[in-house]
Amino acid sequence: AVGGCDDVFGRAETQPTVELFDVETGVWTLLTARLAHPRSTAGAVALGDKELFVVGGAPSLQSAELYHVRPPLPQDQEGQAAEAAAADVGTTTAATTTAATATASDVVEEEHTEEDSPDNSGAASAAEACVREFPDMLEGRMGCQAALLDLPEFGGEFPMCKRRSVVVVGGERCEEVDGEFPRIKQFKHIPVLDVESGTWRTDSPIPDLPMARTAIALCVGLGHAVGGS
C-alpha cells in the first residue's frame, strides 16, 4: 500500500507511508522508510522483488522515485514484542509501589533511556537509502496508472521488444487559480521511462490513448506471438 490520504471528503492529509502485507502471516506492516514525497492516486509498479517505482499522484506531481522495500527482520519483530511486554510489566509494578519508590523508579528509567537509547541517525540514513529519485515527468499528473513492459529500443519496431520500460497511462493535472474554478487537463499521452538508463524517452513507443481520461483502470496480460513459417 503506497501513499494515499486519510480523509478524501474532509481535510485530507496526503501520506508518505508504505505498508507491506505478508501473505504467510496475514499481517500488514508499516515500513520505517517513507516516500520522498507524500502522494495519493499515484502510479506504482514493482520492478523486482524489492523495488517499487512510484510516479505522479496528487497534487499533480511530476516526480518519480524508486522505493527499496526492506521488510522488518523476524528478530526485530520479536524484540519489539519483548520490549512491549516488558513495558507492560514495568507499568504494573510501578502502580503497586509507594510514591517515593515510583519517583525513584522514574529517575532510573529516565537515566536508562538516555544511556541505552540508540542513535537514530543510522536509522534515518538507512531510511533515506531506501529511496532513489528519478527525473521528473514533463507534466505532473494524478489519477494515473503504471505498468512494466518490454518495448522496442529507440528507433526499433514491434515485436522486437528488449527494453524494460515503465509506462504511465491516464491521469489529470489540476491547477488552482485564485478566484476561479480549477483548470483541469486530462491526459492521453503515455510517458515511458527506460528502466536501464533511468530516463524518460523522447520518442513515443506507445501511441496516445484514443481519448484523454483519468482514474483509469489498467490491466496487463501476457502477449502471444502466433503464425510464422
Task: Write a structural description.
The protein is of the alpha+beta class and 229 residues long. Helix content is 21%, strand content 24%. It has 3 helices and 12 strands. It has helices at residues 74-95, 99-116, 120-128, and strands at 19-22, 27-30, 43-48, 51-55, 64-68, 131-134, 145-151, 163-169, 172-175, 183-186, 192-194, 199-200. A 4-stranded antiparallel sheet has the order 3-4-5-6, with no helix packed on it. A 4-stranded antiparallel sheet has the order 7-8-11-12, with no helix packed on it.
Strand proportion, as a percent range, falls in: 15-25%
Morphology: globular
Please give the share of residues in helix.
10-25%
Secondary structural class = alpha+beta
Overall pLDDT: 79
Q: Report the count of strand segments.
A: 12
What radius of gyration results from the CA coordinates?
24 Å
Order of helices and strands: EEEEEHHHEEEEEEE
Give the biggest sheet: 4 strands, antiparallel
Low-pLDDT stretches are 89-124
Short description:
By secondary structure, the chain is an alpha+beta fold.
